């Protein structure tokens, strides 16, 4: 029996549509210019590639099976989300227009990419997604490594498509989102959301 691809794609799609730390981070960078926004998205997708590779090689399963290692990832992930949230709230207190791409580049793009990458890689929920979701759809009698690699690649592909749509949609609203007053509101909302998600992650048994 093969993979139930329609059901698998539906579950994966719902997983991406439900807002989480990655979406809050993208929202926080919504008014910083196209290059910076796409750098954040690229970092998030790169993080998915890291998780997909780890799942295909069995590293994610080993990490999830080790309570100590998983706790370390959880604490680091929660601390990083709180850090990003506090940084956003501090940015909201500053006055003036939103920084331009020229003011942020090249360090702005590199920093944005690292934020997206670390936000995704240090999210233990992403680890559990690959270690708990994929086995549910794994067909019997197939090579586990090849099948895991294929399904992980599909997850990355769906993620790439989803974030492309999100970033294009945000780009269409760039003129509004780049206004100083709107940016301050976004920073407050995204910053508060990241802090809440970080605290929730730290206090949730995984």
From TrEMBL:
<dbReference type="GO" id="GO:0015171">
    <property type="term" value="F:amino acid transmembrane transporter activity"/>
</dbReference>
<keyword id="KW-0812">Transmembrane</keyword>
<dbReference type="InterPro" id="IPR001123">
    <property type="entry name" value="LeuE-type"/>
</dbReference>
<feature type="transmembrane region" description="Helical">
    <location>
        <begin position="39"/>
        <end position="63"/>
    </location>
</feature>
<feature type="transmembrane region" description="Helical">
    <location>
        <begin position="117"/>
        <end position="138"/>
    </location>
</feature>
<feature type="transmembrane region" description="Helical">
    <location>
        <begin position="6"/>
        <end position="27"/>
    </location>
</feature>
<dbReference type="Pfam" id="PF01810">
    <property type="entry name" value="LysE"/>
</dbReference>
<feature type="transmembrane region" description="Helical">
    <location>
        <begin position="150"/>
        <end position="173"/>
    </location>
</feature>
<keyword id="KW-1133">Transmembrane helix</keyword>
<keyword id="KW-1003">Cell membrane</keyword>
<keyword id="KW-0472">Membrane</keyword>
<feature type="transmembrane region" description="Helical">
    <location>
        <begin position="69"/>
        <end position="92"/>
    </location>
</feature>
<protein>
    <submittedName>
        <fullName>LysE family translocator</fullName>
    </submittedName>
</protein>
<dbReference type="GO" id="GO:0005886">
    <property type="term" value="C:plasma membrane"/>
</dbReference>
